[in-house]
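Key result, reporting period 2: structure in, sequence out.
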């Protein structure tokens, strides 16, 4: 039972994703993805730069505000320094009061008299330090930040947002310690009241070499970077608009790119259905234009190949029909004559045998051409070098009898010192035999065929020349095409049946395949006076 290979799949495999079903969607997706990635990276980078710049600017502004506030408090004529001294005196009195209270407790044990109430420093500060509180409030309004005034121990004298007694001691904070050292510094940490990340900056209040206190200014990071967030949101909005515009552009570009592909698809389907008149427009110089030109060239090649095959079918039909007809007629004649005319019967049998040989040569040529087509474009040169002089002489000797029977002179001029070649000796002999057979076919009686060699430009050239009717110039480009025959001028000689080729226009095509597989080239030229010259060239070894 004969098995047949499965038919090629005509329907595409199912797409895993919807966008894989169309080249246009792939272009849009790829284009949009690239733009989205670029815009995302650009937006994040710009946002980070703007955020850091905004944050650095806010820190700098707070440091400047703290410095300006400290300069105001440092003025001896402003009277602010008296409140620092007053708070210092309260602290000293409180410490002494606490010590005295301890002595009273010892006396109480003896007299059992109750101690007098003690007013705390913070309670006194809330009442007696209004100028510092005013400074904190004013600068807080101008800077849009919280202002805190501290003594050298980190105690709060005034605060723009909270009661001084509610604010914890700031003596351990980095910006406070830096200010006591006479410098300015900012820090970001959670706020004691809200827990939100907050920028803190501080500047010393200094008179001469004496530090009276510290001005601390703080502002939430969210408020300080509000402008950066607005810029980032605007940039994100602009990026979305740019993405939408780029997507529309990708749709337009995708349609323009896919249109010739769809035209090519439609033309390919039409060609597959047998319409070889289809062509596609190739008016661009890009890859799509190159693809269109390649498609048109493919269609031309297919059309040319089919035309050659039709010619071959016609020639092969003629070549097959003629010997088969002769065989049929002569076999019937032999059967009819019987033993009446032994000589005529013998002649018919000889002709039947000759026609059978002709059919055999045609079949062999077709088989040789099919085998050569399997290795088309591949060079099969042997590693060892070959002396082609004996090969050429042997080919000439093979064809000498055929030339003698055709009343043609076969002249051989082969140098005994030819360079060796990396070729297949059997192929070279077959090439020369076919060329000599072709030349003898188309050379009239009393004509001449020459086999010569020459070395030029590191090439060994083997020439087969005849003085027959020649080849029309319009047929020269097609002389090596398969199934091509120039029968109108180079008519095959009548009466010469003992030939190598089949006469179906396959000999020269076989020759070209053999030459190219051995790394050589073949061309045909017009003879100086009359006829044609076939030149086979191979790279010569130094």
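The corresponding designed sequence is given below.
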């Amino acid at each position: 039972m004969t098995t047949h290979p499965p038919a090629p799949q005509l329907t595409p495999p199912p797409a895993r994703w919807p966008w894989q079903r169309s080249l246009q969607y792939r272009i849009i997706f790829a284009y949009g993805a690239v733009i989205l990635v670029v815009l995302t990276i650009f937006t994040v980078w710009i946002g980070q730069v703007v955020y850091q710049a905004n944050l650095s600017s806010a820190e700098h502004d707070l440091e400047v505000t703290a410095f300006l506030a400290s300069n105001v408090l440092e003025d001896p004529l402003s009277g602010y320094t008296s409140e620092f001294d007053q708070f210092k005196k309260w602290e000293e009195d409180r410490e002494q009061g606490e010590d005295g209270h301890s002595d009273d407790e010892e006396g109480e044990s003896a007299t059992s008299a109750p101690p007098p109430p003690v007013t705390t420093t913070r309670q006194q500060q809330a009442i007696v330090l209004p100028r510092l509180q005013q400074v904190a409030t004013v600068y807080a309004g101008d800077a849009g930040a919280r202002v805190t005034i501290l003594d050298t121990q980190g105690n709060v004298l005034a605060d723009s947002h909270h009661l001084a007694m509610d604010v914890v001691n700031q003596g351990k904070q980095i910006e406070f310690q830096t200010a006591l050292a006479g410098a300015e510094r900012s820090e970001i940490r959670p706020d004691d009241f809200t827990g939100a990340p907050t920028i803190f900056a501080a500047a010393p209040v200094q008179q001469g070499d004496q530090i009276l206190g510290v001005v601390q200014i703080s502002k939430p990071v969210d408020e300080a970077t509000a402008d950066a967030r607005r810029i980032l949101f605007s940039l994100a909005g602009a990026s979305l608009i740019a993405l939408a515009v780029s997507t529309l552009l990708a749709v337009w570009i995708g349609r323009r790119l896919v249109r010739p592909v769809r035209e090519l698809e439609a033309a390919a389907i039409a060609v597959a259905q047998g319409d070889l008149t289809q062509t596609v427009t190739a008016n661009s110089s890009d890859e799509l234009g190159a693809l269109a030109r390649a498609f048109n060239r493919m269609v031309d090649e297919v059309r040319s190949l089919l035309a050659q095959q039709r010619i071959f079918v016609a020639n092969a039909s003629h070549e097959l029909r003629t010997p088969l007809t002769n065989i049929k007629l002569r076999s019937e004649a032999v059967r009819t004559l019987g033993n009446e005319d032994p000589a005529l019967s013998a002649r018919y049998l000889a002709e039947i045998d000759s026609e059978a040989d002709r059919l055999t040569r045609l079949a062999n040529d077709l088989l040789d051409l099919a085998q050569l087509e399997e290795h088309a474009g591949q060079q099969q040169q042997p590693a060892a070098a070959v002396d082609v002089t004996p090969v050429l002489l042997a080919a000439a000797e093979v064809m000498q009898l055929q030339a003698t029977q055709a009343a043609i002179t076969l002249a051989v001029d082969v140098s005994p010192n030819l360079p060796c070649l990396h070729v297949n000796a059997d192929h070279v002999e077959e090439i020369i035999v076919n060329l000599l057979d072709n030349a003898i076919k188309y050379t009239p009686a009393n004509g001449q065929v020459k086999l010569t060699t020459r070395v030029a430009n590191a090439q060994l050239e083997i020439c087969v020349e005849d003085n027959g009717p020649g080849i029309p110039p319009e047929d020269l480009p097609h002389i090596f095409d398969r199934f091509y025959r120039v029968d109108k001028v180079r008519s095959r000689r009548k009466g010469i049946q003992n030939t190598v080729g089949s006469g179906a226009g396959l000999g020269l095509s076989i020759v070209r395949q053999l030459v190219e597989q051995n790394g050589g080239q073949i061309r045909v030229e017009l003879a100086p006076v009359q006829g044609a010259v076939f030149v086979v060239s191979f790279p010569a070894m130094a």
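The domain at 377-539 is CATH 3.30.565.10 (Heat Shock Protein 90). Residues 32 and 244 are 9 Å apart (CA to CA). This case is discussed further under Risks and Mitigation.
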